[in-house]
Design brief:
The chain has helices at about 15-25, 85-95; strands at about 10-15, 30-40, 45-50, 55-60, 80-85, 105, 110-115, 125-129. By secondary structure, the protein is of the alpha/beta class. The protein folds into 2 domains: about 1-65, 2,3-Dihydroxybiphenyl 1,2-Dioxygenase, domain 1 (Roll); about 75-129, 2,3-Dihydroxybiphenyl 1,2-Dioxygenase, domain 1, CATH 3.10.180.
């Protein structure tokens, strides 16, 4: 049987590197572990951590195709981040100019959550723990 230990990282390809870098670091609060420019690919790779844990690789490539995200499409649906205070997280995003959807209640757990989007319209979720 395969013994997975953990999720190592999530890779995201963005259309505007500087805009996405600012969003993930200044709006969401990720810290930069490493930033690399790969000349042969004309591509940046930005390693990002959350609370010291390596989590996201942010890539730029010349002219990446758009990701179909709405209506629902096959593949990765969204990334969800746990928060302890959904209201203050929403207030922070609103202060930074990020629009969130109305808060919903998870029918299974009874917990509150909301969705918002990154600069490339990748669906992101805040889930109150």
């Amino acid at each position: 049987m395969l013994q997975l230990a953990a999720v190592h990282h999530i890779a995201i390809i963005c259309s505007n590197y500087e805009v996405s870098k600012r969003f993930y670091t200044e709006v969401l609060g990720f810290s930069v572990l490493g930033e690399y420019y790969r000349t042969e690919r004309q591509s940046y790779k930005l390693d990002l951590a959350l609370n010291g844990q390596y989590l996201i690789e942010l890539f730029s490539f010349p002219n990446p195709p758009k990701r179909p995200s709405r209506p629902e499409s096959a593949g990765l649906r969204h990334l969800a981040f746990a928060v302890t205070d959904l209201d203050s997280a929403i207030a922070h995003l609103t202060e930074k100019g990020v629009v969130t959807e109305p808060v919903r209640i998870d029918e299974t757990s009874g917990r509150r959550f909301t969705f918002f989007a990154d600069p490339d319209d990748l669906p992101l979720e805040l889930y109150e723990m």
